[in-house]
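Task: sequence design from structure.
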């Protein structure tokens, strides 16, 4: 139940569900990645390797970043076996081999099938934040990529480059949790009567844990996890808390140390859960606020457009927050930095702005408009008539230029 709660309250899960039109497929990809590991370690043998490869290729076809689930779960499983003296070394070796072979098979099948489909259809992969060149690893950059994995791993929990960790002292809660993990690891290595090879292997895999979390930075090195959709590219980050629970359950000797550490870990888990819950609830509040605000502005835009008769091609220029609709809750907005809720309803790029407004008006107001092209946009902003426009909802904030209804929300241009 604890592990389930930690997974559900993940920023990635919360952000994924905001993509309600495709979140079911994202979750299916998540499930298939976990299922691939179950085939590896649960079934094993040739059958397990084959079915794990099939599950992994399907998962990657839905969303490549979910490969990190398989990598990380395999690492955690092997580490759990290493600190259990009841598990024979032959089983450990077999599990390691199965995980490696299953993983290689799944990734190889995905990359090769992707190329085959492109050749057969004659369609090239669409450029999408570097995912179209996944697997094209530059060996000259591999050291820098590994270094970047470790940097990004610790920045996720302790800096503001991704999640705002200063908000409500999130970084201090994470620091306490990392101290708890280190304490549990020290207890295991000192109190468990492990053979030296098991200890060495365990520590080596422990050093690989950040690479498991950030594996997308190596598999698709051109992908930036700092972008707006970066939270979806790092789906495993809550598993660090799950990892602590797994390690704690692996402590063999149930003595006063076990009780003390258990109580401390339980308190830490409560703090972590509240921290993640505040992030999720804050995101829901901000999304609702932004949706209502967007609806209000969309209604005004729709009413003004209808004054121009049958014209249905529009061009929305600018960002409403930079115009006459400023951000009302900047602190709440800042608390949602990097996660999906902080991206707001309307995306900031030219294509994002046009398509988001068009889809929003069609969905909630029932009116279908068409968007102008990028070339038409450039022609519009270079006309004298555009330079004389005001900022919406001012009277001259809407104008017809080149037979296109232009709505100027701010002076921002692309």
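Answer:
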């Amino acid at each position: 139940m604890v592990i389930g709660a930690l997974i559900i309250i993940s920023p990635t899960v919360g952000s994924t569900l905001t993509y309600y039109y495709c979140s079911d497929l994202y979750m299916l990809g998540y499930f298939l990645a976990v299922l691939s590991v179950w085939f590896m370690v649960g079934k094993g043998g040739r059958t397990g390797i084959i079915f794990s490869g099939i599950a992994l290729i399907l998962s990657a076809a839905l969303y490549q970043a979910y490969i990190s689930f398989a990598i990380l779960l395999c690492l955690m499983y092997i580490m759990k076996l290493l600190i259990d003296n009841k598990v024979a070394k032959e089983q450990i070796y077999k599990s390691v081999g199965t995980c490696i072979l299953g993983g290689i098979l799944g990734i190889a099948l995905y990359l090769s099938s992707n190329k085959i489909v492109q050749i057969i259809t004659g369609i090239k992969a669409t450029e999408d934040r570097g995912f179209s060149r996944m697997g094209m690893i530059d060996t000259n950059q591999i050291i820098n990529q590994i270094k970047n994995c470790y940097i990004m791993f610790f920045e996720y929990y302790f800096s503001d480059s991704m999640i705002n960790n200063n908000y409500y002292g999130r970084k201090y809660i994470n620091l306490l949790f990392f101290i708890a993990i280190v304490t549990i690891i020290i207890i295991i290595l000192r109190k468990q009567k492990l053979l030296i090879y098991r200890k060495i292997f365990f520590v080596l895999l422990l050093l690989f844990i950040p690479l498991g979390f950030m594996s997308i930075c190596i598999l698709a090195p051109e992908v930036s996890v700092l972008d707006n959709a970066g939270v979806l590219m790092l789906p495993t980050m809550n598993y660090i808390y799950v990892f602590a629970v797994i390690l704690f359950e692996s402590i063999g000797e149930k003595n006063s140390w076990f009780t003390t550490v258990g109580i401390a870990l339980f308190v830490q888990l409560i703090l972590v859960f509240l921290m993640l819950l505040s992030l999720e609830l804050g995101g829901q509040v901000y999304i609702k606020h932004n949706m209502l605000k967007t609806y209000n502005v969309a209604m005004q835009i729709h009413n003004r457009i209808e004054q121009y008769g049958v014209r249905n091609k529009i061009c929305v220029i600018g960002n409403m927050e930079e115009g006459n609709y400023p951000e009302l809750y900047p602190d709440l907005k800042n608390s949602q930095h990097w996660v999906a809720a902080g991206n707001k309803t309307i995306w900031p790029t030219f294509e994002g702005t046009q398509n988001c407004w068009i889809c929003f008006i069609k969905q909630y107001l029932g009116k279908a408009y068409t968007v102008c092209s990028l070339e038409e946009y450039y022609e519009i902003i270079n006309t004298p008539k555009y330079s004389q426009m005001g900022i919406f909802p001012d009277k001259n904030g809407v104008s017809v230029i080149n037979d296109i209804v232009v709505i100027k929300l701010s002076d921002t241009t692309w």
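The mean pLDDT is 90.
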